[in-house]
Design brief:
The chain has helices at 33-43, 50-54, 98-112, 127-135; strands at 14-18, 21-27, 60-65, 68-78, 81-89, 117-123, 139-148, 153-161. By secondary structure, the chain is an alpha+beta fold. The protein has a single domain (14-161), classed as Aminopeptidase, CATH 3.40.630. Strands 1-2-3-4-5-6-8-7 form an eight-stranded mixed beta sheet. It is globular. Bound molecules: coenzyme A (COA).
Length: 162
């Protein structure tokens, strides 16, 4: 999969300039796991452990700035659909377009490889993330009852045609 496609104009790894500092996007390696777990703990009420990510390194994109891991995106390809499973940006790097760059990179490369749509679930109460996905063109497409625990909550299903 080429994550350089469609943005940044270069070869993989994908690069963008943010605040005059270059950000790289690439597929994860085992060495990225501590940074991912650290962001995970700062971002979710029920953080996932290293083992979950360890099994999915090839479906895990990371964004790095000056060699620091600042965000990640876990996805899954199912037929001609791409499923966004988890995305988080380190709190100190939010609202700088980092997660936008990660998702745009994934959607562009998936589209080039024949995917026709993308979908995701998000907690109904997670208004900032819903705004974030709307900013990328995702629209509400249904609900999944009691999809989340701790606390128990429905998921809003969102989708986007590629
Ligand atoms: C949601 C999240 C991934 C966004 O990451 P980010 O790198 O800050 O996002 P971006 O800077 O690329 O935001 C792009 C656009 O999304 C929207 N957006 C992002 N965060 C927002 C917020 N807190 N409130 C409202 N809109 C928001 C804005 O339109 C933003 O553009 P702008 O900054 O020019 O207004 C980040 O807040 C996060 O890690 N949250 C905790 C984990 C989580 O809830 N993940 C999603 C569910 S899996």
């Amino acid at each position: 999969m080429n994550f350089g496609a469609g943005r940044g104009g270069g070869d993989s790894p994908f690069c963008v300039i943010i605040l005059c500092v270059k950000m790289n996007i690439r597929i994860s390696t085992k060495e990225d796991l501590p940074g991912i777990v650290q962001i995970e703990k700062k971002s979710f009420s029920v953080p996932w452990g290293k083992e979950i990510f360890e099994e999915k390194l090839n479906s895990l994109l990371v964004a790095l700035m000056q060699e620091n891991l600042i965000a990640y995106l876990l996805f899954e390809k199912v037929s001609d659909e791409v499923h966004i499973i988890r995305v988080a940006t380190h709190p100190e790097y939010r609202r700088q377009g980092v997660a936008n760059a990660l998702i745009s990179s994934l959607l562009n490369s998936s589209k080039n490889e024949g995917a026709s749509s993308a979908y995701l679930e998000v907690r109904e109460s997670n208004a900032p993330s819903i705004r974030f996905y709307e900013s990328l063109g995702f629209e509400a497409a249904g609900k999944r009852k009691s999809y989340y625990s701790e606390p128990d909550e429905d998921a809003l299903l969102m989708s986007k045609k590629l």
